[in-house]
Structure formats: C-alpha cells, structure tokens
Amino acid sequence: xxxxxxxxxxxxxxxxxxxxxxxxxxxxxxxxxxxxxxxxxxxxxxxxxxxxxxxxxxxxxxxxxxxxxxxxxxxxx
Length: 77
Known about the structure:
Oligomer: single chain
Distance between the termini: 14 Å
Shape: elongated
Strand content: under 5%
Order of helices and strands: HHH
Helix content: 55-70%
Number of helices: 3
Radius of gyration: 15 Å
C-alpha cells in the first residue's frame, strides 16, 4: 500500500465512529453504508486540508498538495 492509500484508509477508519448508517439494514448493507459515509467524511476533511495549504500558482510544485490530492484520488476510487 502506498502512503496515499494508507492515509486514505486511515482517514476512513477514523471517521467510522462518526458516520451514521441505518441500523435496520442487514449487516452487509450496514457495513457498506458505514464505509460510504466514513469515506464521504474523509473526502470533506481532505478538501478542507487542500484549501488550507498556503500555495501560489507561481511556486514550484508543492509536495504537500500533491500528497493530499493523491489521498483524495484514493478516496474517490
């Protein structure tokens, strides 16, 4: 697993405690819904991180931005 994949998985795990899933569903559907909700939370967090990084177009490529964009890519797969 590359660092971006690892960070994406880590974020999803962190948000699972806060992601709501309908408890009337069977265990499989519940798990899938919980995973989806946690992933959406992680995407929102990554978007906020990307907005907070101070970077200007005239600067050389920013490794921090590149990393978080790769994490977002992993989350949207």
